[in-house]
């Protein structure tokens, strides 16, 4: 099977500029999981949360480097689904693609519910389900229009998130140095006091590690968006290369600031979120409301990006003969039927948040808990096989190269296997592993059966 030339895998629009791609990559690493979810991770791991985020960040760096290598060689709106199909067969592309599509669709609903809770706190007279419906209408409409509209929305959303993080880090560093008015440098007190750097031992570090792994989801969208950019190869190469330092700065840096300035045992870290708790501790007026606005922006940004990513993944799958043909229809370069279908679950969440407001969030979270790890596994397995083929047949396409191939690819696969084992050990994450594993197994069986049926008919499978 010959590799396609390095271009998009469908006649989508090409309205994304380099500034859009760069900011999508930058904004994709800053989500609500960082702003809010990291609080419970700190409560479990203590100061060793810095180590947890560094370890999981290293794994994500390897995954993004592998994905960047394949995406630069063959930009495709189906991203890793296309690469998995090339490497392992249609069943792998089917499984990776539709599992990621399901992940994004459910995430849209989760983010809508989370955003609605924030706005409901400001305007309690309007029910949460009404806010979910409003957000879904806005971002469904945005994605039905030309792709440049999605790019502009995401550019400014990401710019606001990045600005908030940079400002927080700047204030935090000044406070650590004791250069803020009415503040004293904390030194190592909070890092080594209260039970030491690893107060809950290895078990606490493991809980923090698992929480941090899933906070990194969202980086994959940039390789999907690259297919609709003006210069796909150069765009994805630059975006992936610069993603490395962002992970260290935004995630590891933020955690270091929080646990240096605040005792990890402080109840407000988990209750308010680490960023709000830190700013309140420093006596900055209105910190809670400021961060609520930032978290709202992060959630709305994620809704926008996930509807986009889901619709493009569905479109790519259909164009490769892996789904209903209607989803592949384009209108002005936009897969509008795929956008509407990918948004449908978000609208369903309007009803779910009305019927089951108390437990629907956790149930949905369990369903998609480990899918991102499944996707990463397909990325690593595909890169392991495709790199050798590219070196032999098309070495000029290796614009981005995985470091120390194949050894670091094996390290990444071992890291993913370790996370799966750790999830099985912990009661809270074991349920997520069962749900996500069951969905993945079903998709694998369906994908393999479909592949065999096509082969038996002798019609061949459309090439990615």
UniProtKB/TrEMBL annotation:
GO biological process annotation, one example: transmembrane transport
Taxonomic superkingdom: Bacteria
Keywords: Amino-acid transport, Membrane, Transmembrane, Transmembrane helix, Transport
GO CC term (a single one): membrane
Subcellular location: Membrane
Membrane topology (UniProt): Multi-pass membrane protein
Spans traversing the lipid bilayer: 21-44, 50-68, 89-109, 129-147, 159-180, 205-227, 248-266, 286-309, 330-354, 360-382, 403-425, 431-449
Domain annotation Amino acid permease/ SLC12A: ranges: 20-430
Broad class of the protein's primary localization: membrane
Family, as annotated: Belongs to the amino acid-polyamine-organocation (APC) superfamily. Amino acid transporter (AAT) (TC 2.A.3.1) family.
Name assigned to this protein: Putative GABA permease
């Amino acid at each position: 099977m010959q590799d396609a030339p390095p271009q998009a895998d469908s006649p989508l629009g090409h309205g994304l500029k380099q500034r859009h791609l760069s900011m999508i990559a930058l904004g994709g690493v800053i989500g609500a999981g960082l702003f809010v979810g990291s609080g419970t991770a700190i409560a479990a791991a203590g100061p060793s949360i810095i180590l947890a985020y560094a370890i999981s960040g290293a794994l994500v760096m390897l995954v993004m480097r592998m994905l960047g290598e394949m995406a630069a060689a063959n930009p495709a709106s189906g991203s890793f689904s296309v690469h998995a199909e090339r490497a392992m067969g249609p069943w792998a592309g089917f499984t990776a693609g539709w599992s990621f599509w399901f992940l994004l669709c459910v995430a849209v609903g989760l983010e809508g519910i989370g955003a609605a809770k924030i706005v409901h706190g400001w305007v309690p007279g309007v029910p949460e389900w009404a806010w979910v419906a409003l957000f879904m209408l806005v971002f469904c409409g945005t994605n039905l229009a030309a792709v440049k509209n999605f790019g502009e929305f995401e550019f400014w959303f990401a710019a606001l998130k990045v600005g908030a993080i940079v400002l927080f880090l700047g204030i935090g560093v000044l406070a650590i140095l004791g250069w803020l008015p009415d503040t004293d440098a904390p030194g190592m007190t909070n890092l080594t006091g209260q039970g030491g750097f690893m107060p809950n031992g290895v078990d606490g570090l493991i809980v923090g590690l698992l929480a941090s792994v899933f906070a990194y989801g969202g980086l994959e969208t940039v390789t999907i968006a690259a297919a609709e950019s003006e210069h796909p190869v150069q765009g994805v190469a630059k975006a992936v290369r610069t993603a490395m330092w962002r992970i260290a700065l935004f995630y590891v840096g933020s955690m270091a600031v929080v646990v240096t300035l605040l005792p990890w045992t402080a109840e407000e870290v988990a209750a308010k979120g680490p960023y709000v708790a830190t700013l309140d501790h420093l006596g900055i007026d209105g910190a809670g409301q400021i961060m609520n606005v930032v978290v709202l922006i992060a959630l709305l940004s994620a809704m926008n990006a996930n509807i986009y990513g889901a619709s493009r993944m569905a479109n790519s799958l259909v164009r490769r003969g892996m789904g209903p043909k209607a989803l592949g229809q384009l209108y002005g370069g936009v897969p509008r039927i795929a956008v509407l279908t990918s948004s449908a679950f978000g609208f369903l969440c309007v009803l779910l948040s009305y019927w089951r407001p108390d437990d629907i969030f956790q149930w949905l979270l369990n369903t998609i808990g480990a899918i991102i790890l499944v996707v990463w596994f397909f990325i690593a397995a595909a890169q392991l096989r495709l790199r050798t083929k590219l070196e032999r047949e098309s070495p000029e396409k290796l614009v981005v190269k995985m470091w120390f191939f194949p050894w670091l690819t094996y390290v990444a696969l071992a890291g993913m296997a370790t996370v799966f084992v750790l999830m099985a050990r912990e009661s809270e994450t074991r349920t997520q592993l069962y749900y996500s594993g069951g969905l993945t197994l079903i998709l694998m069986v369906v994908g393999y059966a479909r592949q065999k049926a096509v082969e038996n008919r002798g019609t061949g499978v459309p090439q990615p």
